[in-house]
Design a protein that fits this description.
It is a single chain. The protein is α/β, with parallel strands linked by helices. It has a single domain, classed as 3-Layer(aba) Sandwich (UDP-N-acetylmuramoyl-L-alanine:D-glutamate ligase), CATH 3.40.1190.20. The protein contains four helices and eight strands. A four-stranded mixed β-sheet has the order 2-1-5-6. β1 and β2 form a beta hairpin. α3 runs parallel beside α4. The longest helix has 14 residues. About 35% of the residues are buried.
Length: about 180
């Protein structure tokens, strides 16, 4: 559970500098996308033979639908995925040329999730945690793992006697105590 994101890659080649500014002009050869953030942790667990379900949120947008589809295509259950019309899907777009990253473009709303979204996430944790053998929280400080959601996850782990594993960013480290 935690911050979900879609990683997009634009690969190409550079053969000149822009006349508008001293930056490379990348001619696009290919575009691709991959599951990022907490979704990547779930996808890796599935690749290792585990069953995984995700609790997090994705926007009611094209990127959110693509993220959901990619999660399902690798075998991650999206039963706990909350669709958020007012909050876009986090997307990290990397532009690469000659195997070198030229720039990264981030599209995100990193503000704390609204009380309604947090409540929906807590409902998913309470509904799904009883069927889990471990809870993994992946926090990139993108606003999904707010204190009430963290508390609900820690309490669910305790209640069901299952380990709770955390990969926090510094800003929320204190909230995982208990």
């Amino acid at each position: 559970m935690g911050d979900l994101m879609l990683d997009k890659y634009i690969t190409g080649h550079v053969d000149r500098i822009s006349p508008e500014a001293p930056v490379p002009v990348v001619r696009v050869d290919a575009e691709s996308s991959a599951i990022g953030g907490a979704g990547n942790v779930a996808a890796n667990a599935v690749a290792l033979g585990a069953k995984a379900m995700i609790v997090g949120c994705a926007g009611d947008d094209e990127n959110g639908r693509l993220l959901r589809s990619e999660l399902e295509s690798v075998g991650v259950s999206t039963k706990g995925l909350v669709t958020t019309p007012a909050r876009p899907t986090t997307v990290k777009t990397r532009v690469l040329a000659r195997h070198q990253q030229v720039v990264r473009v981030d599209r995100e709303d990193a503000a704390d999730a609204s009380e309604d979204v947090a409540r929906s996430l807590i409902e998913q944790i309470e509904r799904l945690s009883g069927s889990c053998q471990v809870l993994i929280m992946e926090d990139y400080n993108k606003g999904v793992l707010v204190p009430t959601v963290i508390k609900a996850a820690v309490e669910a782990g305790r209640r069901h006697g299952i380990p709770t594993v955390v990969d926090p960013k510094r800003l929320r480290f204190w909230a995982y105590g208990g």
